Amino acid sequence: MSGILVIAEQRRAELRPVSLELLGAAQSLRQPGDTVAVAVLSSSPERFIGPLSLAGVDEIVTVKTAAAEFDPDTVESALGALIAARQPQVVLIAHSVDSFGYAAALAARLKLGFATDVFRTERIDGELVATRGGYGQKVSVEVDFPGRSTVLLAIRGNVFKAPEQASSPQVSAFEAPAVQSRAQGREFVELSAGDDVDMTAAEFILTIGRGIGEEAKVPQFRELADAVGATLGCSRPIADAGWLPKSRQVGQSGKTASACKLYIAMGVSGAIQHLAGMKHVSTIVAVNTDAEASIFGVAKYGIVGDIFEIAEELRRLF
Amino acid sequence: MKILVAVKQVAALDEDFEIRADGRDVEADFLIRDLNEWDDFSVEEAVKIKEASADPVEVVVASVGPDDVDESLRKCLAKGADRALRVWDAAIEGSDSIAIARVLAAIARREAPDMLFAGVQSSDQSFASTGIAAAGLLGWPHAAVVSALTYAPGAKSAVFRRELEGGLLHEVEIQCPAVLTIQLGINTPRYASLRSIKQAAAKPIEVLSLADIALGAGDVGEAGSLSRVRRMYIPDKGRAQLIEGDAAQQAARLAEIIREFKGAQA
Asked: Is A229 on the interface with B (CB under 8 A)?
């Protein structure tokens, strides 16, 4: 029993970027003699051989499935068979919406060591140790897996670096058992725009979060954003409440602030899902009454204070 | 017809808190308990389905934890759940999400609902595992991060949309009974009225032991878990450079940062 098995995630014929980051995570765990195999499940898995032929990958395992898109029964059955055949020490998957839908079921049934949202992996005295956040990311938690011969880790995105150099790994096909799936995927739907703003193109974003407290406060921040020349964005609770359209939501399930260079977050606590959409921005200014808010962990500048007072003072200057 | 909703009483940290002497959790005195944010939405979804159904539907909420969890269960009852059950045993202490899922699966076997809801994740430990692990143990169809649902109790299938990354939705039809994990924003949770809070006080909360649901001490706690907390610690604080002064001074510095950015753009 040895080696690391990486499960690449694909959707609509494209690898999700986190798949390649998993290869980076595999390198950090690799011990002498370990092989790194990456498996990809798809109705046409061959198309991913090229993109997965990267440094550090010893083998690409193609798994042809009847379902073209993610289906829990299909994935669990195929991975269950693959893990049984290969008996890897570590299986790395993405901490993603797809893995939310199958990983825990697979781990529970196969009794695999299991941790989700892992942002650090290491070996301490030869034992695999994974680190994740706890209590709304205010503490770090090291977990280990006593007595588990295979450990399944769901790795947080945007943490590990994807390898860049190409390589020519061995390719093999794994025949997955036939499966009678109990769910049928129908179609993909893009969230309707709601308004014409493109958050991914905005270079300067002013985002409001739960801290604004009530819908009646939205117009004053809209006005402030206009005055300073920023695009108004929001965190999830604001969009869920219908105070701003979903198209303005920054975060994992909303938009990524891809082009943003200056990001001002007002009354945003900094849930991990929000950070996923903006923590890469080079200049982040966080304004929050709670000095312990996670948003200060990714911000370049922090103002601990009342967002309404700051907003009012700032408005006077433009 | 019956919908079972799994709920969790989560813990938020007090402003100042200390790690427990054994270094594996936060000292309990510093924890502020409340119903998990996601569970507000799954309870509402079940109650909405009940209200829209021509046939009678029972909404049962279930949780795993000591007696202070009754406070969160009462909240669910006030929002329209019909009855609640809570499983606790000292042996459950130290369980990971999989061991808790084993308890949840045992509750589901006993209750035999037509549908089981859980929150996508908990706001404290964010495992995003319990509901789907329970589905795996039950052998039921399952789906995570459901942000829209069409389901009539007793129907052989349900249609839902799962909320993917980047503003994309995936529509899926699933066989029932199933386990669905419910995403924030699927509905607008109601506030409990004074009257319903009073009524909730009279609704039953049944307390079950492990034996009542045919589990033993070895199924839960560290023995029934797939991971073990080795160490909990407070990570190094973020690197934000604090802008000091009164609001006017802080705003002035912020204005400067904005002008620097605009200067660089020009």
From this structure: yes
Flag if A96 and B184 touch (Cβ within 8 Å): no
Q: In chain A, what residues touch B130 (CB-CB under 8 Å)?
A: 104
State the CATH number of the domain containing residue B194.
3.40.50.620
Q: What is the dihedral of CA A18, A23, A25, A31, to 10 degrees?
A: 170
Determine the pLDDT at residue A192.
Answer: 63
Beta-strand pair A127-134/A120-124: antiparallel
Instruction: Tell me how close the Cα of B57 comes to any Cα of chain A, in angstroms.
Output: 24
Number of other residues whose CB lies within 10 A of the CB of residue A195: 9
- Residue B172 in domain: yes
As a whole number, mean pLDDT of residues B153-167 equals 95
Q: Is residue B11 part of a domain?
A: yes
Could you give phi then psi for residue B179, rounded to 5 degrees?
-110, 125
Interface of B with A in 63-92 (CB under 8 A): none
Instruction: Summarize pLDDT for A1-26 with one digit per residue, the tens.
Output: 479 999 999 999 999 999 999 999 99
Distance from CA of A241 to the nearest CA of B (A): 7
Span A276-309, pLDDT tens digits: 999 999 999 999 999 888 899 999 999 999 999 9
Number of domains in chain B: 1
Chain A 66-125, residues with CB within 8 Å of chain B CB atoms? 69-70, 72-73, 76, 95-98, 100-109, 111-117
Of A114, A285, A300, nearest to B227 by CB-CB distance is A114
Residues listed for chain B: 266
Alpha helices in chain B (DSSP H): 37-52, 70-78, 97-111, 130-138, 194-202, 247-265
| Chain B residues lying within 8 Å of A116, measured CB to CB | 126-129
CA distance B50 to A234: 33
Where helices occur in A172-288 by DSSP H, the ranges are: 218-228, 236-240, 272-275
pLDDT tens, B112-146? 999 999 999 999 999 999 999 999 999 999 999 99
Q: Mapped to the 3 state alphabet, what secondary structure does B184-223 carry?
A: CCCCCCCCCCHHHHHHHHHCCEEEECCHHHCCCHHHCCCC
- Would you say residue B239 lies in a domain? no
In a domain, B105, yes or no: yes
Asked if residues B185 and B146 have their Cβ atoms less than 8 Å apart, the reply is no
Chain B residues with CB-CB distance to A314 below 8 A = 251, 254-255
Contact residues for B139 (Cβ-Cβ < 8 A; gap 6+): none
SS3 A252: coil
| Predicted local confidence at residue A1, as pLDDT | 47
Omega cis (within 30) before B177: yes
CB contact under 8 A, A186 and B242: no
Residue A124 neighbours by CB distance under 10 Å: 11
Which pLDDT band holds residue B167 (cuts at 50, 70, 90)? confident
Give, as one character, the DSSP assignment of residue A201: G
- Using the Cβ of B16 and the Cβ atoms of chain A, whether some distance falls under 8 Å is answered with no
Residues of A in contact with B231 (CB under 8 A): 141-142
Q: Which residues form the domain of B162?
A: 2-219
